[in-house]
């Protein structure tokens, strides 16, 4: 039996081998045989409609999948995919911006809570492909800044192609560690609906 975790739900393992998800805002599992896995799920739609991230409380590590990743791996490993963040036509940039701002808020809370305890490290983030163990707060701030620059028209389109019947653009500037390939429509929708200056 599968389990769909709602936003901000913690995962629990049961003696019968099943896993359940319960709100992390309330009390811990009411079942005495349930064991917390120390993992909280965040629903982060935008890159895809069903994108999610998860946070490991013990490791203080956020995992975001393909929501974002840097243009190339820090270790320059040629076997690692190095390229733009790719959005399918089902993507949604306003939802993506909201999801990333939500994650940033969660990370800032966790970092703020550890400032008084010298033994706790800052939250790290690992992403699909190229980005592993980076400072989560700085990385999310950086990717958000890049997307806002794209939406404002401050990042050039360096390539265009038709994918699944839509014009897809590649946005990148030489000084950035980020690049994104997505349907042009997603950027246009974000320009119409996002409050940016």
Distance between the termini: 47 Å
Number of domains: 1
Oligomeric state, counting identical vs distinct chains: single chain
Order of helices and strands: EEEEEEHEEHEEEH
Q: Could you tell me the number of beta strands?
A: 11
Portion of residues in beta strands equals: 25-35%
Shape: globular
DSSP summary: helix tally: 3
Helix content: 10-25%
**Gyration radius, in Å:** 18 Å
What this model shows, in words?
By secondary structure, this protein is α+β, with helices and mostly antiparallel strands. It has one domain (about 45-195). The chain is about 25% helix and about 25% strand. The strands form two sheets. It has a seven-stranded mixed sheet with strand order 2-1-3-4-5-7-8. Strands 6-11-10-9 form a four-stranded mixed sheet. Helix 1 (about 95-115) runs antiparallel to helix 2.
Give a quick rundown of the structure.
With 197 residues, the chain is an alpha+beta fold. The chain has three helices and eleven strands; from the N terminus they run ββββββαββαβββα.
Chain-wise SSE layout:
Blueprint lengths: L8 E6 L4 E5 L10 E10 L8 E5 L4 E3 L21 E2 L6 H22 L9 E3 L7 E2 H17 L4 E7 L2 E6 L8 E4 H10 L4
Parallel strand pairs: 5-7, 6-11
Antiparallel strand pairs: 1-2, 1-3, 3-4, 4-5, 7-8, 9-10, 10-11
Helix pairs in contact: 1-2
